[in-house]
Backbone:
């Protein structure tokens, strides 16, 4: 409704002012040598310029007020995204550590992500109509990236608990999606003047890059590209999603493949 008002009020104002000009010039045309239509054209030129200027000023004020109105809600949403990003970084860092505490650390991170993910989804669902068509699509993109990253972390968690090494685990590096999530977050942080609540202790994406590379190089049952997988008769390929299966080129004829994410 508010977006409709912002679009039609300039037209309404132009109609009112133009009608007023016609009435005023019609009156004064009887008392001067200037023709009625000459007066209308002269004044209309100035009015159009004024309308354009007023339109942008008022539109800016309305947009600013609308943003200020929803800032408390966006602060809550961004806080949850911040928490999720932090725990994703912690979770993937535990994956690369390969220590005795890694399994417990990954599981703990996933649980905290679930809690914040549920709160984030509730905030978006309850306030989506008010946040409007400019913000909601961006939040939907963030939600999709988060869901994909959480599933990757869950997939690696399964691999960590596979002490019998029954499968070759084939996924894709989470680093690209982590950068994508951070880009979305930073954009909204700047737009809504959000102040981080955490002291940003989780590892940065840059700090995670080399440990991830070493993790893949040193663990032959984990692969972060379909190309790096070499078929073995001893272990079944366990792929993160269907797209990875389609890119596998070294499958032994008749070999079965397990898929984690069918969506």
Residues:
């Amino acid at each position: 409704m508010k977006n409709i008002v912002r679009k039609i009020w300039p037209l309404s104002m132009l109609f009112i002012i133009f009608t007023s000009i016609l009435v005023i010039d019609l009156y004064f045309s009887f008392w001067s040598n200037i023709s009625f239509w000459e007066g209308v054209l002269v004044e209309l030129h100035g009015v159009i310029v004024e309308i354009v200027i007023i339109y942008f000023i008022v539109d800016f004020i309305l947009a600013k007020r609308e943003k200020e109105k929803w800032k408390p809600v966006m602060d809550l949403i961004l806080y949850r995204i911040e928490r999720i990003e932090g725990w994703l970084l912690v979770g993937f860092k535990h994956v690369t550590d390969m220590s005795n505490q890694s399994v417990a650390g990954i599981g703990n991170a996933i649980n905290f992500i679930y809690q914040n993910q549920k709160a984030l989804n509730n905030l978006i669902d309850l306030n989506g109509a008010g946040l409007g068509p400019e913000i909601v699509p961006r939040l939907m993109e963030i939600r999709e990236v988060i869901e994909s990253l959480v599933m990757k972390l869950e997939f690696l968690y399964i691999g960590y608990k596979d002490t019998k090494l029954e499968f070759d685990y084939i996924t894709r590096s989470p680093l690209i999606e982590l950068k994508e999530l951070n880009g979305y977050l930073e954009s909204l942080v700047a737009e809504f003047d959000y102040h981080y609540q955490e002291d940003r202790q989780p590892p940065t994406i840059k700090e995670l890059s080399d440990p991830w590379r070493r993790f893949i190089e040193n663990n032959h049952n984990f692969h972060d590209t379909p190309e790096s997988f070499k078929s073995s008769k001893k272990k079944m390929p366990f792929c993160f999603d269907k797209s990875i299966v389609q890119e596998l080129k070294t499958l032994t004829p008749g070999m079965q493949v397990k898929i984690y994410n069918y969506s």
